[in-house]
Amino acid sequence: MSREPAITGLGQTAMSVRPGGTASALAVEAVAAALADAGVTHSEVDGLLVGSSQGVRPDRLGVGLAQQAGFGDLRLLEHVEIKGATTVAMIERARYAIRSGMARTVVCVFADAPIRARGGAGSTYAHSGGTSGTRGLERASGVLGSVPTYALLAARWLAVTGGRPDDLCEVALAARAWAVHNPDAVQREPLGAADYHASPMVSAPLRRLDCARPVNGAAAVVLAAGADGIRIRGTGREHPVRRRRAGAESWFGGGRRAVEDALGEAGLARADLDVLELYDPFTIVTLCLLEEYGFCEPGKAGSLVASGATAPGGDLPTNTGGGQLSGFYLQGMTPLVEAIIQLRGAGGDRQVPGARTALVGGIGGRLDHHACLILEAS
Amino acid sequence: MKTADWLLDDALAPSTKDEQLGELYRGAARGELVLPFCAACDLALELEQVVCDGCGAAGPVWRQASPHGRVHSVTVVHRLEPGLVRTRDPYPVADIELAGGHRLVLAPLEPGTAPPAIGDTVSIGFRRIGDTAVPSFRSEVFPPSKESR
């Protein structure tokens, strides 16, 4: 029997913008849904990979989930952590474990519950990070949460590329246009430019509508050997290990190798891809990745998005569930879940007709880690 | 007499005994900007870097660095987290390229500082959060060379 793995199950919880649920309880629910979707039982699972929100929070998910979720004798059990690139890394890890014979049926799960009764997710993030090391100095400089950091990146990007702040608006509008048709999206009201410009500034140039909408939720997928499901055609990584020094850029110019390695393994070209599912915690990141992954010329991402190419009906459908911006922010699971839905033809009113191939991108840190998958419908 | 920082609550004060940045904070207490350089080739190292990426030598030396620099990027933070942020007004934060080769993300020394523009020159001073002196920037271009929000 073939050891080649396929994605055979997908499970999600409801995506909630209100307090409720612990990460582990949400993970257990998503795992059960994924197993049911794949038609396998707990006893058939011999691998579990767990991803959690980075940062030291007492409730973060870990390998203890194996016990909580009722698993038995496992051949593979790991907590995978490369920040936002973790989900793609879990799929890669599961793929190689199945190919090698180490495991036959592997569950990958991510859960997060940043929204608490006494404060929203923004407050949770603002209070996370401690006072030590480089992060401690940044926090002592008023960099609370990740928005100011990405605002610095965005301001630099606009200055270096000659981009316009309105390019950020175009990304937000395109994401929302997809989310309107995604029942799992937490922000589905139609959005216009005036609504965007009325959105409160968080850290200039990023407004609230430039930022992902955190949720309490979980998603899980099942990979199985020799089964019928979504095929993993290629993977690629790039970890540039950047240096922050005077006189040089420190955020831009990474990730293309990850895409090209994944496409190379798949034997496909960019033009063969039917949907792009990119990691989009902030509007600026969509612009950066469209350029850095080679989907447009340098400096042209803003005009590409403004042309409607990435929006519903465009010829480069991107973040077709609304992404993290308007869909839900479950880190790397957000683009993976949407790719699976599209390749199953289960996207309902947002389905890209005939979608058979997808790029899934994950980034970690401040564009420090890039991990890509090429997926193909069964 | 100890006075409170204009920007942040004391809960955000780093410790002068910080395992990684203790040298920086002890230098700041003396009014000096102290940063890590490679002991062998003098390359400016990142704050948590142990081995030089230029020559491979291990063991940074922390020494006084030039307190002058230029703005690499800048934002104005409008979200004022209750309990952590003291000022009631949006405040600038700048990513600064220092003359000695380092980059630091810093707040303004004084309240009411207009956001500098990318490329503007700044100098480094020190404000106190709790008992810890923390490097901060002072604009040297008045008014900023272009409008920033």
Walk me through what this model shows.
The complex is a heterodimer of chains A (378) and B (149). Chain A is 34% helix and 18% strand. Chain A has 378 residues and is α/β, with parallel strands linked by helices. The longest helix of chain A is centred in the first third of the chain and has 16 residues. Chain A is globular. The relative contact order of chain A is 0.18. The mean pLDDT of chain A is 95. With 149 residues, chain B is mainly beta. Chain B is 5% helix and 33% strand. In chain B, the strands form 2 sheets. In chain B, strands 5-4-3-6-7 form a 5-stranded antiparallel β-sheet. A two-stranded antiparallel ribbon of chain B has the order 1-2. In chain B, β4 and β5 form a beta hairpin. The mean pLDDT of chain B is 94. Classes of the chains: A alpha/beta (378), B mainly beta (149). Chains A and B meet through α4, α5, α6 and β5 of A and β3, β4, β5 and β7 of B.
